Amino acid sequence: MKADGLAVTCLCPTYGRFQQLRDAVACFLLQDYPHKRLLILNDAPARIEAGADGVQVVNARGRLESLGAKRQRLLEHAETPLVAHWDDDDIYLPWHLSALVEAYRAHGVACVKPGAAWYAKGPREIFEMRGPCHNTFEGQMLFERERALELGGYPPCDSGQAAALLARFKEAGELYTWNPPDERVSYIYCWADGLGHISAIGNTEGGAADFARRNRDFGGPGISLVPDTNPHRWAARRLGAIFRNVQRRLRELRKADSSPVKRFPRPSQNISRFTGPVNDGST
Predict the structure, then answer these.
(1) ∠ at Cα 233 (235, 218), nearest 5°?
(2) Inside any domain, residue 203
(3) Residue 260 gets which letter from DSSP?
(4) For 141-152, how does the pLDDT look when each residue is reduced to its tens digit (9 = 90+)?
(5) What is the C-alpha to C-alpha distance for residues 234 and 29, in angstroms, rounded to an integer?
(6) Are 197 and 153 a contacting pair, CB within 8 Å?
């Protein structure tokens, strides 16, 4: 791989969130960074098929002990120098990987991560947008695979495994964070109603069983994650309403801001390209 084309593998563990996982795959397909691949680890009882180039699904034969164990297996399985955290229930806007790689090149540390994100509650296409908010948001970090393994990787727990790895980079002095302007925020943390969220369940006794009980969307036999011969078109249609929601929130912020009107990212990264007709989420 050429020096100007660092390959990135997005690591995505999943269980029983087929439709949400489709959103995560659509986000990946719309990334404007070309040197990318998506690696999904599914330990649900039903197999998942990818249906798109650059997307690989590993179907485990049985349930893994924890979300941290799943992330660690993905980390060990990846083959690229850089890896990116990729949650199956959050939204990554099209310039996300490009911004991360740009920060990695500029600052020469093993891990980079923006410090701001959108926070979303409610149903998928009409969720309430808050922010941008400033928090840890470890779900948007990019880091060197080998260095992560040297630091011990992900601990074998459910809640807090990503934050623990992020803390290891910080303690080693190898973490760079920054707060992008509103129009450059690239990550939407989707809380929904919180009921099926691992952060709400935590590392409690019976927490893994509770998570599995609340997340039972396994797709169906023979159904691929990408059900279209044109994956990019499918992805743009699927996420159109979500992108329009982001645009609406930015307009609200602009009206409330007395500073000059802000612009969207450069045309190659403009989400307005993807706000056409939208599927209802079933395909």
Answers:
(1) 35
(2) no
(3) P
(4) 999 999 999 999
(5) 9
(6) no
- Render pLDDT for 84-119 as a digit per residue (tens, 0 to 9): 999 999 999 999 999 999 999 999 999 999 999 998
Q: Which residues pair with 82 in a beta bridge?
A: 8, 144
**Is 1 inside a domain boundary?**
no
**Structure tokens of 163?**
């934050």
Residue 99 lies in a domain: yes
Dist. CA 175–CA 95, nearest whole Å = 21
Q: Residues, the chain, total?
A: 283
Q: How far is CA 162 from CA 7, 11, 51, in A?
A: 21, 12, 28
Q: Residues 253, 256, 260, CA angle at the centre, nearest 5°?
A: 85
CB 96, CB 118: distance < 8 Å? no
- Please give the mean pLDDT across all residues of the chain: 84
CATH number at residue 148: 3.90.550.10
| 212 belongs to a structural domain | no
- Decide if 63 contacts 75 (C-beta within 8 A): no
Overall number of domains in the chain: 1
Contact 264, 270 (CB under 8 A): yes
Domain extent, residue 174, equals: 8-197+225-274
Integer Cα distance of 57 and 54 in angstroms: 10
Does pTM surpass 0.90? no
**Are 236 and 23 a contacting pair, CB within 8 Å?**
no
Helices (H), the chain: 18-29, 67-77, 96-107, 145-150, 161-171, 198-201, 207-214, 231-256
Strands 142-144 and 82-85: antiparallel
